[in-house]
Amino acid sequence: MTARIGVVTFPGSLDDRDTQRAIRLAGAEPVALWHKDKDLHQVDAVVLCGGFSYGDYLRAGAIARFSPVMEPLIEQAKAGLPVLGICNGFQILTEAHLLPGAMLGNDHLHFICRDQKLRVENADTAWTTDYTAGQEIHIPLKNMDGRYVADEYTLDKLEAEGRVAFRYLGLNPNGSLRDIAGISNEAGNVVGLMPHPEHAVEPLIGSGRTDGLPFFTSILKKLVNA
Length: 226
Fold this sequence. Notes:
It is found in: Cytoplasm. The protein has helices at residues 16-26, 70-78, 88-95, 152-160, 213-225; strands at 4-9, 29-34, 45-48, 83-86, 102-104, 112-120, 136-143, 147-149, 164-168, 180-184, 190-193.
């Protein structure tokens, strides 16, 4: 039996189907989870996808963090369940305090949509083992509130512990401190990033690259070999 990876849909999510397709292309079984679900239906991992949950009211991810599905997700993530937060999902993970720091509006105050060059900084998380540290990849980016911020102590700790997973190369698209594009928790089972790997899994659509597919093959290998 293949691994089952849940994809949570909130009101305002818009990349859930793309994420399910990426999971299927990697060889796993996508499982649709609804924001009102009170359990995770025995999935092996969860992806919080991109979009504008609850219209980004208050702050991006601030309301979604209190959806019923988040209670079991937070509990199980702390116990080791692999969780990937993409864009709005990353924002939700910071609001839920599964990842440190916060996401603010882009420093240029505009929505941005572009192919973004990244450097893989940590290839040892549950979601990045099919990359190599230092590898340069291109992943589509689209956000309005993508500026990662944290206090200096937290930033220094992330750097010292190797928890910066991805860093922007070339243009910093949103003013994120230290060019941080994605981070992980201490255990490496929870990863959040602003770019959208689910849009880079097939050569004929999206960016025309498959640089995002290793996110999904990485977690599949980890779950199958567990």
